[in-house]
Design goal:
42% helix; alpha+beta; elongated; L-fuculose-1-phosphate Aldolase
Length: 263
């Protein structure tokens, strides 16, 4: 038991996904980040809790999330530790009413991820859209990051179509495909803005030579999209390692999937 039943469930799901990321080898050292909008799970005890930090600048104004609460992986914290001890390796923050600062309100002064501006920008967009999406995840899938080193795969929708064609589930469960954000300094506002531009069309974005981020209604759904894309990438790379280029599904077969699954 951490706080209340609803919040406990969300924190346990975050810990579960953190464990998956570590087990898959996608979260070396302190690599990767998770943020979840927990505003609806906050009770009066936490809502009225005195902050344990000063107001900290986000770096830009995010008006759609002012007054909201987020659980964030802590900076320099490891996913394997977040999986075992989420409250020692994660932070609960409240966005101040100016939309430009946040305060830590958890029991322990864990500073949130250095990529917080990018993550909060994604949440700001999700709230603006009214989609009900609450989770954002960033991780380092080896296969997908490797493919981002090939300029051919960085052209719009080239990688989406290739991965869709490897296995039907990719088309069904990641119907928007994967957007591409050109390399920018990790944690920078430039990276945040580039990611937001891609999220206007996609739910998953490749950060060139860095990793992948995804958004979804909860952390498990966001993780699942990356997992499905990674499986497709593994199929492609396995075929190439066997010295042949996989044929992939045809345009007609992909269109059939789109129609059947109403994508």
């Amino acid at each position: 038991m951490y706080y209340n039943d609803k919040l406990d469930k969300v924190i346990n799901e975050i810990a579960e996904v953190a464990g998956y990321l570590w087990e898959k080898g996608w979260a070396e050292r302190n690599g990767g980040n998770i943020t979840v909008n927990i505003t609806n799970e906050i009770d009066d005890t936490l809502r009225t809790k005195t902050p344990i930090s000063d107001r900290i600048a986000i770096g830009e104004v995010l008006p759609n999330i002012k007054g909201m609460f987020f659980f964030c992986k802590g900076t320099n914290k490891r996913m394997r530790d977040l999986a075992r001890h989420p409250l020692d390796n994660g932070s609960i923050i409240r966005i101040c009413n100016d939309g430009a600062h946040y305060e830590i309100i958890a029991d322990k002064p864990v500073k949130p991820t250095s990529e917080l501006p990018a993550h909060l920008s994604m949440h700001n967009l999700m709230v603006e859209r009214g989609t009900g999406y609450k989770a954002a995840i960033h991780t380092h899938p080896i296969d997908l990051v490797a493919m981002s080193h090939n300029p051919v795969f960085l052209e719009k929708d080239v990688l989406s179509k290739l991965l869709w064609s490897m296995i039907p589930e990719t088309r069904a469960f990641c119907p928007k495909g994967i957007g591409i954000a050109s390399y920018e300094l990790p944690g920078s506002l430039t990276l945040a803005k580039s990611t937001i531009a891609q999220l206007n069309e996609y739910d998953v974005v490749m950060w060139e030579k860095h990793g992948v981020c995804a958004i979804g209604p909860d952390i498990l759904e966001a993780f699942d999209q990356i997992d499905v894309l990674s499986k497709a990438a593994q199929i492609y790379l396995t075929a190439r390692s066997m010295q042949f280029i996989p044929t992939g599904m045809s345009d007609e077969q992909l269109q059939e999937l789109k129609e059947v699954f109403k994508l």
